[in-house]
Amino acid sequence: MERLKGQAALVTGSSSGIGAAVAKCFAAEGAKVVVNYASSSEEAEEVVEEIVADGGDAIAVQADVSQEDQVQSLFAKMFEAYGTIDILVNNAGVQQDSDFVDMTLEQWNTVISINLTGQFLCSREAVKEFLRRGIPSYSRAAGKIICMSSVHEIIPWAGHCNYAASKGGVMLLMQSMAQELAHKKIRINSLGPGAIKTPINQDSWDTPEAKEELLKLIPYNRIGVPEDIGKAAVWLASEESDYVHGITLFVDGGMTLYPGFATGGG
Ligand code: NAD
Question: 192 C-alpha to center of ligand 1: Å?
């Protein structure tokens, strides 16, 4: 049975990595998917083509999620194509790493505006539509939002203050929206990936030395793949998780278990 049959989903930043996997997993479960991209139309079209070749339904729409007017036009294009939205996945995100003392205001602002403000802008447009439409006949919720957070919503990260601050912000944005909108039957949760093999963190897995260092942080002893997150996203968007609200589901092979304490020494 297709768990998201006929539902309209928007996955931001889904031309690559985790977003592309979420878009494909959603489409395989019967969702109609908007593949949002910031600049690479070629990659986004490839994701759409793959979905369509597998018998699914998807379109690619350009928008920078940090720009209010572009987010509004993204939703207008989605409504033109699919009439409404049932599932929003706030996935778009970037890293711009720097030692704290050398971090420029531009590096700070870029990461906060895409990773945090982008989630606010997209969630607000989705919630407007959920409130207008109410609960559709095919779902128990008036709408569902999944925020792509990170283990770094709780694990501090030296050299990545802007990124960690953005994900810490996503945690309380998600929880506050969840608290405010639960009685409207809008279901909101986060996914907290650990280390997943994508272009964003290629430096930390593409040499044997880097991989060995990274695995020390992962008790389950394997680096994640985008499909690990795609499968969890399907569950969080589906009726199977209808009573799950306001949580971060960490999908991290145990990275949040303080692996440095595994031997109990100290
Ligand atoms: P990625 O670089 O493959 O994907 C990021 C996507 O966001 C890209 O498609 C990019 O084009 C898009 N994007 C960037 N700026 C945008 C903008 N202004 N508007 C719209 N789209 C924009 O990396 P990924 O690992 O797939 O990252 C996806 C999400 O997962 C991010 O939010 C990231 O923080 C989060 N995450 C990733 C990992 C990991 O280990 N890969 C771990 C934790 C969290």
Answer: 13
Question: Rounded mean pLDDT of the chain?
Answer: 97
ipTM of the complex: 0.99
The model carries a pTM of: 0.98
Atom 31 (ligand 1) nearest CA? 93
Most ligand 1 atoms within 8 A of CB, residue of 153, 174, 198, 217 to mutate? 198
Q: Determine the longest span between alpha carbons in the chain, in angstroms.
A: 60
Nearest CA to ligand 1 atom 41: 196
* Exposure class string for 87-125: b at 16+ Cβ within 10 A, else e: bbbbbbbbbbeeeeeebeeebbebbbbbbbbbbbbbbeb
Q: What is the CATH class of 8-197+225-253?
A: alpha beta
**CB-based pocket (< 6 A), ligand 1:** 12-13, 15-19, 36-38, 64-66, 91-94, 114, 148, 150, 193, 195-196, 198-201
Q: Which residue has the tokens 């608290």?
A: 179
> Any idea what DSSP says for residue 115?
I
